[in-house]
Amino acid sequence: MHRHSRLADALLALVVLAVSVPPLREPPGCGCPPTTAWAYVLVAAGCLPLLWRRDVPFGSALAVGVVAVATSLLDLPEPVLPFAALVAVYSVAAHARRRLALLAAALTAAALAALAAEQQSDANAVTVTYLVFATAWLLGDSARGRRERTADAEERAAQLERTRAAEARRAVAEERNRIARDLHDHVAHHVSLMVVQAEAGPVALDRAPERAAEAFDAIGATGRQALTEMRQLLGLLRAGDAERLAPQPGLDRLAELAAGVRQAGLPVELVVTGRRRALPPAADLSAYRIVQEALTNALRHAGPARAAVTVEYARDELRLTVVDDGVGSADRDPPGGGNGLAGMRERAVLVGGRLEAGPRPVGGWAVSAVLPLPPA
Prior knowledge:
Number of helices: 10
Radius of gyration: 39 Å
Shape: rod-shaped
Largest sheet: 5 strands, mixed
Number of domains: 3
Structural class: alpha+beta
CATH topology of the largest domain: Heat Shock Protein 90
């Protein structure tokens, strides 16, 4: 970016030089004395500082001003407008610090007044010159203001993005803690069940040997289930969390959840298709929490609306769909507003599933989740 700016400044200096040189040439047959080489040197010297008009705007403008005053005092031919000086005034107003820009404006006004007095210029010409230089300074100041406002807007956007990212990380961490606490009781239940079954094994061997194999099979199945949930739990547990929780809900309580949402003011239709069957505790709990969070979001953000929940039991997966016909806002999960979408996605990923959420083409909002299940 800096290289492109330097190239643009070099091209600008060449353009200013190109429009400043022609007035130095004598018209044919005018009988004017020939222009000395020093005049061309001065004009070039007045354009050269424009190469640094962004890096050192005040110094560049000061150098151009000194050359412009010298050119006027030496009574050399001048262009209709002092292009180099105008560009320098614009640049110092646009790129220098505010105090230096005001100082440059004051020095320019003083130099113009001194030249007008020394050359006894016409009042109208002096007024036009002041207006031209004032316009150049104001245009530069306006460009500075736009650049600063743009920079402020970009910084606010970057800060907002950082805040959103931090909130998303916090929501994921909180949801993982909550999931870990939810799974704690299931793991403890399976382990307790294994202990009971193991203690009953010797009794079964003595009294009903044919049932001992069933008891050990049950221990193995329970152990495998406990290990699966333990692997999920170990990645989520946080040190020092010993909170005891009540048994967690599952899809068998969806009707109760829908009734509560209806009482809160959101009409909900619940449809269950496919052959119902017992689900792994982690999947059962995650499915319930996804539907719960989706309905909570609809209740908070959809406005006056209706919602529909569809639960489909497929051969090897569970499909959940929650739709509403309310306000299809793209910001259903505002910073600080809770776990929201991040929590639902975390729930789905925990059991190896996936989740999609977003506005519906016909209006409203849709949440769709697919959770893998053991074959029926």
